[in-house]
């Protein structure tokens, strides 16, 4: 049983079928085809306005290109210190920003608070030797599995406006956040001040389905060229775009995300009943962050369950992981089976009762 991430499963059937359907016949290359055009229009409908959409094959490419559009080489981009853009992309955003830097701030559950961002911005000296802040990047869902509420997004958007920053959202788990909030894509993005979005679909049923969605038109001006320089103008672009036809059809994407979130909730409610288990922070989307006794960690591993240990860096201030405990991350996906969740919970409870009996 594998709870290591939501990209450990393949692509969903509607996505694969849409690729097969788009495969027939000859069409213009490099995204100048009817399928890509239809998908761009679908994005307009979903976001309730005219936007620019650039397809990409990885989230790292989408993030790096989005940030390179928002930040000049001498600029600073603020993010959480555990953000994927600063921690997990081998410097790609900084590489594509041609010298600009990422500044990582702390925050519980890998979430940034508007007041902390504002205080940091105010503290920065304004001199030519100081890199001027030009963008804020947040991850929705955060790397701690938390979801920014609309008020929190609006407050961050306000800080960005006041300080002249572009506002980027890394939406690798966009759909999981959306169904958790029960709002519209427009409400979760441009209506709260998001200027540019990395729209991820790979984790939620895609094969390699990422898109840069631009709400602030000037950020789209050079993205075609930037994408080409990054090798992201895809020759058979229709096969990448087609994934989104299958993804959006009949709200397949929302159903997938609801399923993943429901499985995570089931996991978290079940683990809550297991003696000795507590939570780093609440389960809000499709990721669960329990602090478990080492013995339980061993029992789960012995049963062949896969998951990652997690960093304690973003725990609330008074919270610590004890010497005989481990903080772990369990991730549910669109394909997680309820029977596997129940099996894990059974193993967890029997692991603890066996321990008590010994
Ligand atoms: C928050 C976040 N952003 C972006 C990505 C996309 O990264 P990749 O380049 O692996 O598609 C991931 C994937 O793990 C992620 O968790």
From TrEMBL:
Reactions the enzyme catalyzes: L-threonine = acetaldehyde + glycine; L-allo-threonine = acetaldehyde + glycine
Pfam family, one: Beta_elim_lyase
Cofactor(s) essential for the protein: pyridoxal 5'-phosphate
Enzyme class: lyase
EC code: 4.1.2.48
A molecular-function term among this protein's GO annotations: threonine aldolase activity
Domain Aromatic amino acid beta-eliminating lyase/threonine aldolase: 3-288
SUPFAM superfamilies documented for this protein: PLP-dependent transferases (SSF53383)
BP-aspect Gene Ontology terms: L-threonine catabolic process
InterPro entries: ArAA_b-elim_lyase/Thr_aldolase, Low_specificity_L-TA_bact, PyrdxlP-dep_Trfase, PyrdxlP-dep_Trfase_major, PyrdxlP-dep_Trfase_small
Keywords of this entry: Lyase, Pyridoxal phosphate
Subunit relationships: Homotetramer.
Stated family: Belongs to the threonine aldolase family.
Primary role: Catalyzes the cleavage of L-allo-threonine and L-threonine to glycine and acetaldehyde.
Protein name (Swiss-Prot/TrEMBL): L-threonine aldolase
Organism: Microvirga lupini
């Amino acid at each position: 049983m594998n709870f290591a991430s939501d990209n450990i499963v393949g692509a969903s059937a509607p996505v694969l079928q849409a690729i097969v359907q788009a495969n027939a016949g000859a069409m213009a290359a490099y995204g100048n085809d009817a399928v890509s055009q239809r998908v761009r229009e679908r994005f307009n409908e979903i976001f309730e306005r005219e936007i620019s959409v650039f397809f990409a094959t990885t989230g790292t490419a989408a993030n790096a290109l989005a940030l390179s559009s928002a930040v000049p080489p001498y600029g600073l981009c603020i993010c959480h210190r555990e953000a994927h853009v600063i921690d997990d992309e081998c410097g790609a955003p900084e590489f594509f920003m041609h010298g600009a830097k990422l500044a990582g701030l702390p925050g519980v559950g890998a979430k940034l608070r508007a007041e902390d961002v504002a205080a940091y911005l105010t503290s920065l000296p304004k001199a030519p030797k100081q890199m001027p802040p030009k963008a804020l990047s947040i991850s929705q869902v955060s790397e701690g599995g938390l979801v920014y509420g609309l008020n929190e997004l609006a407050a961050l958007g306000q800080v960005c406006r006041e300080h002249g920053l572009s506002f980027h959202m890394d939406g690798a788990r966009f759909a999981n956040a959306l169904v958790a909030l029960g709002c519209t894509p427009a409400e979760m993005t441009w209506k709260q001040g998001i200027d540019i979005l990395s729209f991820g679909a790979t984790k939620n049923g895609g094969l390699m389905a990422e898109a840069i969605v631009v709400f602030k038109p000037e950020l789209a001006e050079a993205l075609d060229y930037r994408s080409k320089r990054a090798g992201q103008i895809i020759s058979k672009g229709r096969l990448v775009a087609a994934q989104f036809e299958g993804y959006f059809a009949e709200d397949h994407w929302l159903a997938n995300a609801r399923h993943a979130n429901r499985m995570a909730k089931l996991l978290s409610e079940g683990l809550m009943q297991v003696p000795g288990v507590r939570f780093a922070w609440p389960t809000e989307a499709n990721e669960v962050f329990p602090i478990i006794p080492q013995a339980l960690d061993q029992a789960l591993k012995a049963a062949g369950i896969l998951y990652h240990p997690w960093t304690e860096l973003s725990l609330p201030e008074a919270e610590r992981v004890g010497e005989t405990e481990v903080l772990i991350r369990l991730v549910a996906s669109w394909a997680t089976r309820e029977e596997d969740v129940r099996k894990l919970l059974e193993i967890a409870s029997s692991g603890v009762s066996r321990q008590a009996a010994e």
